[in-house]
Amino acid sequence: MSVFFSRFFFAALFAVLPTSFAQVRAEVWPEKPVKILVPYPPGGACDAVGRLFAEKLSERLRQPVVVENRPGAGTAIGAEFLAKSAPDGYTLAVTPTGQLTILPHVVKALHFDPFKSFTPISQLAYTSVVIAASPDFPAKTLQEAVHAAKANPGEVSYSSSGSATIIHLAGEYFANTAGVSFLHVPYKGSAPAVAALLGGEVNLAFDTLTILHPQIKAGKVKGLAIAAPARSPLLPDLPTVSELGYPGFEVPSWFGLIAPAGLPDEITQRLNREVAAILQNGEVRKKLSALGLTIWPSTPEQLGQRIRDDYEKYGRVARQANLAFD
Amino acid sequence: MELLSNLSLGFDAVLTFQNLWYCFLGALLGTLIGVLPGLGPVATIAMLLPVTYGLPPLSALIMLAGIYYGAQYGGSTTAILVNLPGESSSVVTCLDGYAMARQGRAGAALGIAALGSFFAGTAATLLIAAAASPLAEFALRFGPAEYFSLMFLGLITAVALAHGDFFKAIAMVALGLTLGLVGIDVNSGVERFTFGLPELSDGVSFVALSMGLFGVAEILANLELREKREVFTQNIGSLLPSRQDLRAAFKPVLRGTLLGSALGILPGGGAVLSSFTSYTLEKRLAKDPSRFGKGAIEGLAGPESANNAGAQTSFIPLLVMGLPSNAVMALMVGAMMIHGVVPGPQVMTERPELFWGLIASMWLGNFFLVLLNLPLIGIWVRLLKVPYRLLYPVVLVFCCVGVYSVSNSVFDVGLALFFGFVGYLFLKLGCEPAPLLLGFVLGPMMEENLRRAMLLARGDASVFFTRPISCTLLVLCIALILLLAWPQARKARETAFQEG
Predict the structure, then answer these.
(1) Is B468 exposed, middle or buried (0-12, 13-18, 19+ CB in 10 A)?
(2) Staple partner for B305: which of A89, A91, B120, B237, CB 3.0–4.6 Å?
């Protein structure tokens, strides 16, 4: 009798609490729509990547996958929201480079741990930082720009999409590497930063290939170099920074897929396989490459390692540029 | 003649059954979400983005653009009927539009808003077609020094917005500036007045602030009155504006269109500035400025045309350079990217059918909007007959949904309610919320550009006077200040304002 009752009790519990048990039922995942958080407002590259993968994942998982924008506090709000979500495979997030590798160095009161709060799933794609010069600026090559900066320390200005963003750190990282000092002029996002370059307000701009390649292609600004291991097929004439005498200077701006810490391993592996398959899809590659993004498949461990490596790298740059609080 | 051939290319691309349908659908959806308080084009376009995956890029962009300018139309409807600005640019519409509605002239107000907007939309579309590229070049010449001077001019005119005590207006502008300080400072990356709340690090949400100060406060204040609104719902008046109204509105519409077209090109505050500036201009030009804020038709027609013209010309930086000037344009970039169109200067040459098709669709969209809106006026006006106890809970719910939808934040909903109580206090104290909102919008941009200009000029303040555009704007500011400070002018002003 008591066995019957306890069974009845548990059955009732299952019936009223289906969601709380979902996390242990990894074998039947996904049973309901999956949410992908994007820590930016709709419209940017991160959002485009999120929506592209949401569409393709939805086909493969046979469940609706919806993008939810949780912008704010330089992506910290999105990260905190994800960290507090249940690790049941129904809440995932696209993480941009700076979220887990720069933010923890420059913001004191974060309610998440870049290593302990999340489960890495897979790298998705990356674009590289490009250095461009305004049409009015006399320098036509990276070397000339460096010479100009050496001759007048702190006089050559560059625009960035904001303070303590990957773009800002790329600028400071390059200044350190080349042994010069630039005047950093932050803007509210990439669009005004690039407009400032077009209008000649600033001499140089650092931004991603996604943002700058249409302007360079149209001859509106002068492309100086790309901080990538190899030239981009979008701009085959644009030299890499390494070629120009700063070997190993690479600043990829990447996107990864993560979930809250404690995601069951079966779900992590399943998602990693699905992402790998999506990245092989010709249409996806074409859409990404039109945006200056290159596919970047990886294992979950490789994404975890990437986060740790970049965390160290940008921590050094942030400290040298006096951006870090410690 | 290049213009004509370009436009015909555009119309060729648009005049297919499918594109016309999406243009109409966009305008309709835009009107609806514009009417719903708080629910803005950003949230709607974001939600509809996945729906456009299967469409050809031109159809998708036509529909999304339609939602944007349709929302401008719809936003004024709510502003006129229930004193709720759906968009920052319809804040000014509340001032005289709502006053007209209270006088039983809601139909005339809606009609003038629709016709003025149509005229402005048509003129601005032609302007884009004729001169998008040179205009974009001009906008690029606007550096931080010019922006600062323009914002400064805007702030000085803000005082003219108030129709109460002069010092209260200044206090409200100052309060707006102070609220604008909240959040991460763009130049240094330092958090200010956030009390450690991450939700405040991007500043106070404009939608939460305006919904609270206008909408929630209005509802609270009306709870004191017992269905007093009956008085003006009985007497709705004629649905369409009279010939006299049209004559009074004609010149303000022309001036508003010019002003809006010019300011809309500038990224950031263009649309807001143009409607506020138009209002100030009309008030200055009016023979009897004391009518403003009490249902002056010029105070409605000018800003309504200005904000619609501004909405159209804000497409210029996006279309010509691929650089979005506001959140909706950023979404259009997103939509283009998803459809494999890389936004940038090459769109005009590589995808002319897309570029000119979108421009042609804007005119058609504006035409659809008039067709939609004029017959709808009767229905909207009938909404005023809905008793308070039914209408206001619904409005409150939509406000909350709208505020939440901006960035999926519950915090912002709480903030809107908080500002609702603050706004109620302001009403009791006779303080106008409009100057506060202008200070709130312009203050952060003004500071950002002041500091950027100083940074780029290495601390040399003369930069504001050596750059010709900036210098002209500052001279205008000084002239305005002198005008305000001139004892006689001020005395005349005060008597004019104390009449009401």
Answers:
(1) exposed
(2) B120
| Tokens 């009155």 belong to residue | B225
Q: Nearest chain A Cα to B321, which residue?
A: A215
Q: Is B441 on the interface with A (CB under 8 A)?
A: no
Provide the b/e sequence for B74-111 (b: ≥16 CB within 10 Å): bbbbbbbbbbbbbbbbbbbbbbbbbbbbbebbbbbbbb
Residue found by looking up tokens 């006006």 in the block? B381
Please name the residues between 196 and 215 in chain A that touch chain B, using a CB distance below 8 Å: 196, 198-199, 201-202, 213-215
**Of B15, B40, B25, residue with least CA distance to B402:** B40
Inspect the interface and report whether the beta carbons of B346 and A198 lie closer than 8 Å.
no
Task: State whether ipTM is beyond 0.85.
Answer: no
pLDDT per position in chain A (326 positions), as tens? 444 445 444 444 444 444 444 445 677 889 999 999 999 988 888 998 999 999 999 999 999 999 999 988 889 999 999 999 999 999 999 999 999 999 999 988 888 999 999 999 999 999 999 999 999 999 999 999 999 999 999 999 999 999 889 999 999 999 999 999 999 999 988 988 999 999 999 999 999 999 999 999 999 999 999 999 999 999 999 999 999 999 999 999 999 999 999 999 999 999 999 999 999 999 999 989 888 899 999 999 999 999 999 999 999 999 988 887 75
DSSP letters for B288-335:
-GGGTTS--SHHHHHHHHHHHHHHHHTHHHHHHHS---SHHHHHHHHH
> What's the pTM?
0.85
Kindly list the residues from chain A whose CB atom is less than 8 angstroms away from the CB atom of residue B317. 191, 195
